[in-house]
Design a protein that fits this description.
Elements (H helix, E strand, L loop, with lengths): L4 H32 L6 H32 L1 H5 L3 H26 L12 H27 L3 H7 L6 E12 L2 H8 L1 H19 L5 E6 L2 E7 L10 H15 L1 H8 L5 E15 L5 E5 L1 H13 L7 E4 H6 L8 E7 L8 E6 L1
Parallel strand pairs: 4-6
Antiparallel strand pairs: 1-3, 1-4, 2-3, 4-5, 6-8, 7-8
Helix pairs in contact: 1-2, 2-4, 4-5, 7-8, 8-9
């Protein structure tokens, strides 16, 4: 069976992870052989240590990477039911078991003099401590990245936006239609659950195309793509993400009707242009995007409410920044004046 574009991308990512982990494992295995093995270390023993580390690192990363990409992704809803610390503990235990099992297999295949025989020896105890520390730290970082959004934690840690900087971005606003009436019909608690499901389903369509979930504003989700193509975030994926979102919701209608008694719908607006991006806040720090581009996108969204029959609307700037891929068509709607804007803006219906 042919692999989808998303599956091919996942396998390429997993391959890079395995390559990096195998290299790191080889270094780790060599260091342990030197520090915990016989003195002086024979060349053959050092080679075995390098091979053991390489094998263990590749196996661990392949198993854990596959677990995150395929198992966690498939059962994401079940994992989300766990509290933050529970999730870290559960995944930390699983990670530790995988690391120790891989280390045991590596020990059986590449016995190193003075350190072999899996059990309470120095090498295994050291590996156990390292496994616990790495698994807890890795899962904590992953969950923090989940809370902040893909790419945001890395930008904060690298200080990319410690000083405000200008950059060009494409924005996609997803707005639920008739949310007020839905909330009145099903009640606030049920609407909160529905809105959370709504955002999750949108995110599932956005992430494969490397969109950055910027923030939630009421019943609206704002997603952005940098136009410099950094870290593989090519803005052309925005149109594919919108198409995937609509297809996903079409297939989820029965589930929404069963769980909430209503089927949510949404409109989508795309616009592109320059913004100022920078960190803001002290007690609660976040990366903030400011500028006329965001204001214009919000005004297009308000205008879109007066254009029935068009679920997806894009500005000429969005189409110029990220030409839609094959299979997605655009039809000119003409030029429109927006409140507070001196120049008219050309809009297109996307289908």
């Amino acid at each position: 069976m042919a692999l989808t574009q998303i599956q091919r991308r996942q396998l390429r990512t997993l391959g890079r992870i395995v390559a990096v982990s195998a290299t790191g494992g080889a270094v780790y295995g060599g260091l342990l052989t030197v520090t915990l093995g016989m003195t002086p270390v024979p060349v053959a023993e050092l080679a075995l240590g390098l091979l053991r580390g390489l094998f263990t690192g590749a196996l661990v990363s392949a198993l854990l990477g596959g677990f995150e990409m395929f198992v966690v992704a498939t059962f994401r809803a079940q994992f989300r039911r766990l509290r933050f610390l529970q999730l870290i503990a559960v995944k930390g235990i699983f990670y530790t078991v995988i690391i120790l099992a891989s280390d045991w297999l590596g020990d059986r295949l590449f016995e190193i003099g003075g350190t072999s025989r899996f059990g309470l020896n120095r090498l295994t105890v050291t590996t156990l401590l390292v496994a616990l520390a790495v698994s807890i730290a890795f899962n904590f970082v992953m969950e923090m990245a989940q809370l902040l959004g893909p790419g945001v934690l890395g930008d904060l840690m690298r200080g990319r936006y410690h000083q405000p900087r200008r950059e060009n971005r494409l924005f996609v606003f997803f707005d639920m239609r008739g949310s007020t009436a839905i909330a009145e019909r099903i009640g606030d608690i049920a609407f909160h659950r529905l809105l959370n499901r709504f955002f999750i389903d949108l995110t599932e369509a956005v992430l494969p195309w490397h969109g950055i979930v910027h923030k939630y504003v009421g019943d609206e989700m704002i997603v952005t793509w940098p136009l410099d193509g950094r870290r593989g975030r090519h803005a052309a994926g925005a149109f594919a993400a919108v198409a995937m979102a609509r297809a996903r919701f079409a297939g989820q209608q029965a589930a929404y009707l069963r769980d909430f008694g209503v089927v949510p719908d949404f409109r989508t607006v795309l616009h592109a242009g320059p913004v100022v991006t920078g960190e803001m806040g002290e007690v609660k720090r976040e990366i903030v995007l400011l500028g006329d581009t965001i204001n214009t996108t919000a005004r297009i969204e308000q205008l879109a409410k007066t254009l029935p029959g068009h679920a997806v609307i894009a500005s000429a700037e969005a189409i110029a920044a990220a030409p839609p891929p094959a299979g997605i068509t655009t039809v000119s709607l003409g030029e429109f004046s927006l409140p507070g804007k001196s120049a008219a803006i050309h809009l297109y219906a996307v289908s």
